[in-house]
Amino acid sequence: MLMGSRRGSALSMTALASVLVAGCATGGILERSELDGDAGPTPIVERDGRAETLDGSVAGDGGAVAENDGEVASIDGGPDVRPMTDGGRPSFDGGSGVRDGGSTGRDPIEVRAVDVSVWTRTLLDYDVDCLWDLGYRHVIAGTQDPEVTRQQLEIAVRGGMTVDLYVYLYWTVSVPEQVRDALAMAAEFPEVGRIWLDVEESPAGRSAATLSGLIEEGLRALDGFPGGIYTRASWWNENLGGTTRFADIPLWYARYDARDTLEAWDDAVDPDRFGGWERPTGKQYADHHVHTCGLAVDRNAFLVDREPTVALDRATPADDGDPPPAPTGLWPDFGLRIDTDYVRPTAPTIREATGYEIEIGYLRSGSWLTYLTLELAHSGYTFFPVASVRGAAFRWRLRARNAHGWGPWSAWATFTVGG
Question: What is the pLDDT of residue 354?
Fold first, then answer.
C-alpha cells in the first residue's frame, strides 16, 4: 500500500476531491471514458502466468488474464486454496482491546485475496466474476471514501467473497476517530470480519515510543472488534526498532517478492519474519502496478476462517425464449453525491444477458439533456464528467439484451456530481 500512489484514509471529501481531480476538459461533453479499467497508466498484459509490461519485461507472476476492451481473453486455472499449515492464527493477550472474532469456527485456509481502495474505483459484478475465475476469494476494502467503500463491499459480498476493511492511519489526525469511522462502516456490513490498521505513514520525526502509543490507541479504539496491523518489515524496523510489542495482534504484511504464499514467512533461505510475530494472517506480495482483471488492486495470500454469506450461481440460466428483464438495483441512485473525479454507474449482472445499453442524462435549466447513450458488454460504465457539468444532477438507466432482443429499460436512477 503505497501512499504516494493510491492510499489514504477518510479525510474530508473536499480534500479527497482535490487529490482525485484529473486534468481539464478537452472541450467535448465527454472528457474521457472507459468500459473497464484504470484511466491511469495501463501497465500490464499477463501472459502464460507472467505479468509483462508493455515493453515485454516481466513485472511479476500471477494468474494470467489479458483484457481487450474489457473482455477477458484468457484466464488460468482454478482457485488457489491451501490448507493452513502449522502455526495457526496469532494469539491474543487481551490487553489491546482487540478480540479474535468474526470466525465461523472453520479452520483457516489460505486463499488468494485482493485489497481495493478509492483508487481502484467502484466495482462491477463482472469485476468480481473475473477475480473469482482467477481464484480470488477475499476482498479487503479501504475506507478512503465511504460511498465507494460501501459499494465495493456490497459488490464483493454479492459476488460470494469474504470481506475485511482497512483504515490508513494518519498521525496528524485523531487515530481513535479514524478507527471509529471504520467501525461505523463495519456496523453497516456484518460480513466484515476484521478491521486492519494500515501502519505505514511517515513518522515525520515522531519517536518509536510515540508511534507505538498511537498504534495502541488505534487498537483500543476497536473496542473489541476483531482487528489487525498492516505494515512492512522495513517500516517496522526503521521506525519502531523492530518492537515485538504487538506480536499477539494479527499481522498482514507487505513484501513484493511475487511469492504468493504465507510459507515465505519461515523460508529457510530468505525468511520474511519480523516483529516477533509467530505467523502472519496475510501477505501482500504484489502491488497495484500489475493490474488484475483490469483493476488497480494489490494481490495477497490470506488466512480466512469465515464462510461467505452468499453462494452465487454464476451459470447462464436456461433459455426461456424471452428478452432479459429490466435491470434493478442501480447504483448510484437516490440523488447520491459523487465526489470522485469519475462515476461508474453499475447494476447487478443479468446472467442471461449478452449485452447492455446505458443512457445518462444531466439537468440544465430545468430540462434533461442527453449526456451519452452507449452499448456495453457489461452492466456498468466509467465516465469522467467534464468541468461544465460538475455540480449538476444526473440520471441514468440501463437495459439488457439477448438473442431474443432488448428487454425493458430500468427505472431512472439519480445522482449528483460534486463541483
Answer: 97
